[in-house]
Hints:
The protein is 28% helix and 20% strand. Keywords: Apoptosis, Hydrolase, Protease, Signal, Thiol protease, Zymogen.
Amino acid sequence: xxxxxxxxxxxxxxxxxxxxxxxxxxxxxxxxxxxxxxxxxxxxxxxxxxxxxxxxxxxxxxxxxxxxxxxxxxxxxxxxxxxxxxxxxxxxxxxxxxxxxxxxxxxxxxxxxxxxxxxxxxxxxxxxxxxxxxxxxxxxxxxxxxxxxxxxxxxxxxxxxxxxxxxxxxxxxxxxxxxxxxxxxxxxxxxxxxxxxxxxxxxxxxx
Length: 207
């Protein structure tokens, strides 16, 4: 498939829930609209999840701008579940596309969006509090060689919930996380298009 933009998106769909099916369809529509080549894999066990990502890493991504991996499955604190109930840890998931495993993606964005519960608890309500303006900033004193980058650089890992808590969904409309993600991607793209259309306009000072 030839596309205008060189980008790839992998959708891993591991549950037959109606709301998750809605999310998968919506993600596929949105990423195709954005110009991505979309690969959809369903009902993968632990080995198959890792193999799909290894196959993706084995490709030559030299002409590619970025890679997106969306995972929709059941999950636990430590990772996502395959259909066999075995866990793929989040570290195992993202390391498959690291520069050591996939050199052609070095210094290119690798985006992971994970829709999965990470426990069985419901999150309690919280109320915002203002922080002191003179609060100390945190810095790292670790020395980093100038000619190197961290192995996990250029990653974005976004999850639908935090450790120990469930992720919420609506039966007919899908999960809250995927609904918001698709809406945000479309909105940001439209804003970017609008901004680019305005760029050629130049204003000249009257002589």
